[in-house]
Amino acid sequence: MSSGTGVGSMPGEDVRESLRIIRGEVGDFAFVPELPARGPHAGMIGRALAVLDGLEGDLQPGGWRLGVGSGSDFRRARSLLAQDLDVAEEMLADHAGPLKVQVTGPLTLAANVERERGDKLVADHGARRELAESLAAGLTTHVADVRRRFGRAEQVVVQVDEPSITAVLGGGVPTASGFGRHRTVQPPEADSLLRLVVDAIIAAGARPVVHSCAADVPVSLLAGAGFTAISFDLGLAEPDDGWSQLFEAGTDLWPGVVPSTDAEVTESDLRRRVERFFDRLGFDEDASAHRTVVTPTCGLAGASPAWARRALSLAQAVAGASVHSGEERDR
After folding, report:
1. Residue 252 belongs to what H/E stretch?
2. What pLDDT score was predicted for residue 321?
3. Residue ranges of the chain with pLDDT lower than 50?
4. Any alpha helices (H) in the chain, and if so which ranges?
5. Domain 3-330 carries which CATH code?
6. Longest CA–CA separation in the chain, Å
7. Is 236 exposed, middle or buried (0-12, 13-18, 19+ CB in 10 A)?
8. At what angle do helices 72-91 and 15-25 cross, to 10 degrees?
9. Which of 8, 68, 288, 321 is buried most, with the most CB atoms less than 10 Å from its CB?
10. Residue 185 CB contacts under 8 Å (≥ 6 apart), including other chains
């Protein structure tokens, strides 16, 4: 796979318009967009909660809370997800390339969702496990639905978003009072929670990839949990032996290089940044070109509509230029 695509979120509230842009700019690798401008029901947390199986909740003054019954906000999140899939199915009915959907991962959900009695789920070992199990079960149904809707797609890709993973592993998630921090979730438990989700995605017939736009992404942990590709902010990545070893072992790397908000950049400059990264890992373009997917650094929810279109176009152009230059050398 060598292409460009988006991370997930898009600006505005019109899912049809977002899909028109996606269909026109990203080429083969389409994705079902998230539009958080429509409110918390359509944001990354609300959308992931809509996938859960066996757990319900609602929106409270402090954010999303589980175990308080299924309120109108929770039902609204599920309704929006179904409606967006309906529109995507209509507009991408003939799509034959890979198709990506996104879901917030269990560690980031635990860091951002409250328990019934308050404070984040990340504080409770049992609650963390229950949440991951519910997400895994829900993804089994969700992926089956996506595969049914997009039967012509070459492959369904499930991108698990973990922007809070570094904070969870490093004890950086604040308590409700704001004066303390929750205890660190140790890597063996984090691996176990992530594996539940990865195994469910694979069993449902989709490809599991993970995205994190945090600094110090624990790439060895993510690769060990079974993700087949890691999507990351290239500007925050420090290429070292860990990155090189996991790439050599078969985990693909998806560099996020296009700015996620309006900026002055050129295709050639972005391409050089990608090439320098892989050069530092010890891989030339021939080795890396067909195992990379170029993306913006993060979601495009904060971009202007014009830049969102331009960013997706640049991602595709940078990916295409890298492939074509490698092909030129092969001639």
Report:
1. strand 252-258
2. 63
3. 1, 323-331
4. 15-25, 44-49, 72-91, 106-112, 125-149, 165-169, 187-203, 219-224, 241-248, 267-281, 285-288, 305-330
5. 3.20.20.210
6. 65
7. middle
8. 40
9. 8
10. 107, 110, 122, 128, 168, 169
Tokens read off for 245: 């070893």
Give the total residue count for the chain.
331
**Any idea where the domains of the chain sit in the sequence?**
3-330
pLDDT score recorded for residue 284: 75
| Structure confidence by residue, pLDDT tens digits, 221-232 | 999 999 999 999
CA distances, 305 to each of 261, 262, 263, 311, 319 (Å): 10, 10, 13, 10, 22
Residue 68, pLDDT score = 63
Whole-number Å distance between alpha carbons of 169 and 189: 10
How far is the C-alpha of 240 from the C-alpha of 242, rounded, in Å? Answer: 5
Per-residue DSSP letter, 182: P
81-117 residue pLDDT tens: 999 999 999 999 899 999 999 999 999 999 999 988 8
110-153 pLDDT per residue, tens? 999 998 887 899 999 999 999 999 999 999 999 999 999 999 99
Hey, which residues does 266 pair with through a beta bridge? none
**Taking the CB of residue 138, how many other CB atoms lie within 10 A of it?**
21
What contacts 266, CB < 8 A, 6 or more positions away? none
For residue 153 the two structure tokens come to: 């797609």
Burial of 186 (0-12, 13-18, 19+ CB in 10 A): exposed
Closest alpha carbon to 106 in 12, 227, 20 = 227
d(CA 50, CA 42): 10
Helix, strand, or coil here: 87? Answer: helix
